[in-house]
Each structure stands twice: as C-alpha cells, then as structure tokens.
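Quick one, T. Sequence first:
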Amino acid sequence: MAFPNRPSLREGAPLALLLAVHATVLFHLAQRTGVTIDEPSHIVSSILYWEGNDRLLPRDMPPLIKLAGGWAAASAGFAIVEESHPVWKTNHEWNIGLDMIRRMSERGIRSAMFRARLPLLLFPLATLVLLWWWGRRIHSPVTGLAIAFLFFAEPTALGHGALFKNDHAATFTYLLFWFTAWRFWKAPTPSTAAAMACGAVLAILSKLSMLIVLPLAALIVLLRSRKLLYLAFVVLIPYTAAIAACQFQTRLLADFLPLPALMWDGAQSLLFNSRAENAVYLLGRRYPSGSPFYFAVAAAVKSPEPVLILLIAGIIILALRFKRRLLRAEDLFWILPGFLYFALASLSPLQLGFRLVLPALPFALLICGAALERLSSHKWVLAALLPALAAPLAVYYPNYLSYFNLASGGPAGALRYLSDSNVDWGQDLRQLRTSLYRLGDPHPFVSYMGADNLLAYFLRNEINWIEPPFTQTGKRTRIFQPTPGIYAISANLISGQFFEAPYRDFYRVFREAKPIAYAGYSIYIYRFPRADSRAHPRH
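Structure tokens:
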C-alpha cells in the first residue's frame, strides 16, 4: 500500500507533540543524570579534537560525536590541566578525564555536563523522526506514529539519549544507512547511491563496529546494479570523508594506502581489547569472555513487556508472510539489519551493557509495526498501549539507565540478572546524598565506583570511605565485614566481576543482605547490624 509522502496535519500534529515531549524529557535527563563512567574521557578527547590535539589513548571513539559535541564541550566550562601536569604522562584520556572532574565543584559539574550533552540530544530525536518516516512508508501513517512512540517510551534508549556517548549516534546512523540502502534498492540511481554512501559515512564515523556497513554497501550495489559509478560512490565517498573527519591524519597500509589515523588506531585498540579478558556478569555468574546469551537475557529483562509481545507477534506475522511469499526483496532491509547487529554483538566478547545493541532497537520496532498494523483498525487496543508504555516512564523517572521490566522484578532486583551499565554507570552520587541525608546517619560508609567526584557532594569528614579491592589498600581482606552503620555500595562493586579472583567475594555480605533503600537503583544502601544479617562486627 502506498501512502502520500507529505504527511497531513492530522499526522504532523501528533508527531510534533511527541517530538516536543521527547525533547523535554531528554532536556531534563541531561540536567539530572550524574556523570557516567565513560563521559569524562569522551569529553576530553572531544575537546582535544577541536583543538587539533586528539592523540590520547585509547583512540577508540570515532569522530562523529566529537564533531557534533566537541564544540559545546570545549565551551562548557571543563578545564583540562596543562600538559606539564604528571597525569599527562599516562597518555590516557581516562585518567585526564578523571582528573578534570575531580577538580570541579558540584555546580560546575552539573552546568558543564548539561551544556556538553545538549548537542547530542539531536541523535535520539533524529532517530524518532526517521523511524516515523520509514514506518509510515512500510506500514501506514498511524503505525508510523505508533512506532515512533514505542521508541520514545523505551526506558533504556531514553536514559542513554541524554548522555555524551556515541550509542545513539550509532543507532541513528545505522538506521539511516539501511534506510538509504532500502531507497537505493527500490530505485538505483546516482542520487540514491550517493545517499547510501553518505549514510555509510555517518555510520562509520559514529562507531567502529559500523565498519561492517562498507562491505555491505558494496555488496548491495553489486547485487542491484553492478554499475562502477555506484560502486565508486560507496567506496570513495566514505574513504575521503573518513580521512577528512580524522583531520587528514593518516597511517600507511602496506606503505602506499593512507588510512584515517584515528579510526585505524581505534580499530587496533578495539581488536586488542576484544582479545583481552572482558568479564561480564550474567544471571549471578561471571563469564570471563562474555556469553552468546548475554544480550538475549538483557533484552528479555530490560525491554518493556508490550514491546516484547509486539516483537514476537511481528516476527510470527512476517514468518507467515514469508511462507506465503508475500515479502519483497526490499523488506529484508528493515527485517534483517537488527538481527544482524544483535548476532554480531552477541558473538563479541565486549558485552558492557544492553546499550551496545541499541542500534538494533529501531529495526525491532519496525518489526513490531507488523503487529501494530494488524491492530491499527482497533484504535482502542492502540490507545490501551499508551498507558502501559508510559507507566514505567512515570514510575522510574529519572532512573532509566537502571530500568528493568516488571516481569523481571524491576530495577530493585537487577543484580539477579546483570550489572555494568545495565544498572550502575556511576550516575547517582547526587541522589545518594539526598538518600543518606534522609536516613540521618552522620557518618555513612561509602564505596563508590564511577567517574563522578565524590567530594563534590560530600565533605571529606562526612563519610567513611571503603576502598574497593582494586588497590593494595583495598586488598587487606578478602571479604569485607561491616560494623554497625549505614552503608552505600555501588551495584557494580557488589557483583564483583571486575576484581581479581581472590577478591570477588569482597562485598559478599552485601550481596546476601537486603538493601533498605536505593540511590537511583545504582547505589544500594544497607543498615547493619540486621537481625537476619550474617555479618559480624569487625574488631
């Protein structure tokens, strides 16, 4: 069924309203969400990129978010120490980023982080618009709007949309590439070939894993038209654009082929990291090199139940269409890419959270559209979906980074399934201060893992610091035994997968105890002694 390319006012008005609501929520999340672990290092590299001095390790962040947000970060109020400072001897953006944040006050951190994040809000908003546009052309205008609403109401996507990270840049550009490839397949012309090449450019500049789109673009051209001009477009446009985006810094391959230095170095760093041990925590166990089921479990426990139901129904509907030979070749461009990305991520040892498969989400929602299309004649069913999807947003605001669905037990039971950025990305120190003041303990014990500045929220004599077993100081005992008092422990420390083998049970007492409160669901708060606690006072 064909629909007019120009949307009517009845279609445009709800979309404009949805965009306004989405932008407002992202705006507030950018203000309220604390510093996450990766953001300071990305901000440092982005500022240095705009200064023409982006040379720090690990160089694994491609240029797109540096281009999009580096100018804002450079003028936001961050102060990177002079290169004469000893921290520069590490040559690592992570260490310099930590030093930068730990020199800032709470007010300075809040203001600078908010201003740096603002330009990157454009990526989730652009994804919503493109999803609506493609969804209405595949299915119908009503279904296109419903798909856009599903994207807005996905808590994990919403939470990560407000951060200085490349997850949403990769989500938008992966969707854009396949949309332009779909258009090329339907009408192979010089303009659609050039558009697909531009989509490939933005994808590879957003995330190194997107390099897979380059051979895919060449394969699509060869299968559809075999014209050398189109093949030249999808090879030469990404190549020259990547070199330009990397500020014309190159590395020679085989002594004659210049490659963009930033992306070449980043790919090597990524390859090195993938060969190292990358332990993940899944269903209460530690897996040294990831698990092929990691993202499947993450999707099952972190996706809203209506989305999971619609996705299953959509897959069944599409399978029946395939059996009846009702699918067309161009349908594969919105059915398969999500499965492809999800499968490749599941085979990778770098499994740091559900956020890493966000590029597959829009395609899952387009498949949900097949089920929504069946329901489009039953407007009351669609209307019933709205409160079911909106309820978690209201209940868990603004703690969407730690969202787990109701069927899994909600975010309070997160450590039964996952940790890492699924739960705790160091984002809740501000909420921790509020929670501890409500409890009224004058000197709580705190063990925090993250990149935020603890001393921007607490005076040094206000807290008792528990050193995690990353250092020799923290390794004085293998299992920490709490004395009476209030304890606030980062969820990623409780799960223990990041520690050396003898110290993985360092926080075992807290794993076995029940928290009395949560700070944003990423920091667990306990009171000892408890009648049911097995902990014994330390003498």
